[in-house]
Design goal:
This protein has 226 residues and is α/β, with parallel strands linked by helices. The chain is 36% helix and 18% strand. The protein has seven helices and eight strands. The strands form two sheets. The chain has a four-stranded antiparallel beta sheet. Helix 1 crosses helix 4, helix 4 crosses helix 7 and helix 6 packs across helix 7. It starts with a helix and ends with a strand. The chain binds flavin mononucleotide (FMN). Flavin mononucleotide binds next to strand 3 and helix 7.
Length: 226
């Protein structure tokens, strides 16, 4: 499964089977976590066979069941911490999908107490990712239209449209999709901005990663602009 396919089949999954993750899959996931920690200057920690964070009232309220594995996402406080978490953790999420696992981003409906102790003193706990073999593969949900997620003068170049379509399938908090991609007048520079909302800086990092995968599947002759 390539990354575009992983994007297409990924949906949030909140109920999991009681099936342990095999050693080889754990190792592959850990390698991806190590890479994300290094490239994104993050503190991502996987808790395997550890149900505490999803045994809380909050987790039940959020309809989570059978979550025995999760990724704790943290890092040193910094203005771009949330966006970096979004970008680099989505790399891990799509890798997990390729490895046959299901996931759900969780910033609110989990027990923070047991996760806080896993991040270094002085670092910030941002969110978690529930992880495991889902009872189902999740379901497709409603999405904003491509034209509502971008601004371009004239016809959309194919690579740009593919980027926006990949971002359209990205998870965002409460499916708010409060982001816009803009293609600048030179036809190559792209900027991405958040339109606000809860956890929207995490969302921005996630949708940037999806855009990159979609756009690069057609052309690499484009660049990010601030
Ligand atoms: C930053 C972020 C935080 C989220 N927090 C929660 C949460 O606390 N509880 C929950 O049930 N889902 C949470 N979600 C999952 C979203 O509700 C889900 O991604 C969205 O509805 C889109 O559905 P999809 O992931 O199936 O495409 C979160 C997603 C993101 C990106």
């Amino acid at each position: 499964m390539d990354l575009m396919e992983a994007i297409e089949v990924r949906h949030s999954v909140r109920q999991y089977q009681d099936k342990p993750i095999p050693a080889a899959v754990r190792e592959a996931l850990q390698a991806e976590i190590d890479k994300a920690n290094e490239e994104g200057y993050l503190q991502l920690i996987i808790a395997f066979d550890e149900p505490r964070a999803f045994s809380s009232m909050m987790a039940h309220y959020g309809k989570f069941r059978g979550v025995n594995n999760y990724i704790v996402c943290g890092g040193r406080p910094s203005p771009d911490l949330q966006e970096r978490v979004g970008f680099f953790v989505e790399c891990v999420v799509l890798k997990a999908q390729q490895l046959g696992l299901n996931t759900c981003w969780v910033a609110l409906t989990y027990g923070k107490g047991s996760c806080k102790s896993l991040v270094e003193p002085g670092s910030k706990l941002v969110c978690t990712i529930a992880l495991g073999y889902g009872e189902t593969q999740g379901i497709p949900r409603k999405s904003k239209a491509v034209q509502d997620l971008c601004s371009v003068n004239g016809v959309l170049p194919e690579w740009f449209e593919r980027g926006v379509k990949a971002a359209q399938l990205a998870p965002t908090a409460m499916n708010q999709q409060k982001f816009r991609f803009e293609l600048h007048s030179d036809g190559h520079a792209v900027s991405a901005k958040s339109l606000g909302g809860f956890y929207s800086n995490i969302d921005l990092g996630i949708v940037r990663y999806h855009f990159q995968i979609g756009a690069n599947s057609a052309s690499e002759d484009w660049r990010w602009e601030a």
